[in-house]
TrEMBL record:
This is Helix-turn-helix protein. InterPro entries: Cro/C1-type_HTH, Lambda_DNA-bd_dom_sf. It comes from Streptoalloteichus tenebrarius (strain ATCC 17920 / DSM 40477 / JCM 4838 / CBS 697.72 / NBRC 16177 / NCIMB 11028 / NRRL B-12390 / A12253. 1 / ISP 5477). It holds the Pfam family HTH_3. Residues 12-60 form the HTH cro/C1-type domain.
Length: 77
C-alpha cells in the first residue's frame, strides 16, 4: 500500500506561536527560502525527506508525530 506524508500545518503553526517564532525565522533555521516554507504551509507541495529533516532539526523539541501524518495514498481513478 502506498502512503504519503503530510504536514500537520495547524499543529506546526500552534507550535510556532507558543515558541514565539515567525515563519521567516523558521525558514532561516531550516536553511530554506521562506517561499518554500509558505508552499508547504499552503499544502501546495508535500514534504520530502530534506524538508522533514530540516524541520525536525530546526525544532528539536518537536517529534515527527507532532508535525507530520502518514496516510494511505489516494488511488488515481
Amino acid at each position: 500500500m502506498a502512503a504519503v506524508i503530510t504536514l500537520r500545518r495547524t499543529r506546526l503553526m500552534a507550535y510556532l506561536r507558543s515558541a514565539n517564532l515567525s515563519n521567516t525565522a523558521l525558514a532561516d533555521r531550516m536553511g530554506i527560502h521562506r517561499t518554500t516554507l509558505q508552499r508547504h504551509l499552503a499544502g501546495v507541495i508535500r514534504p520530502g525527506e530534506d524538508f522533514i529533516g530540516a524541520l525536525l532539526l530546526a525544532l528539536p523539541k518537536a517529534r515527527f508525530e507532532d508535525l507530520f501524518e502518514v496516510a494511505p495514498a489516494r488511488e488515481a481513478s
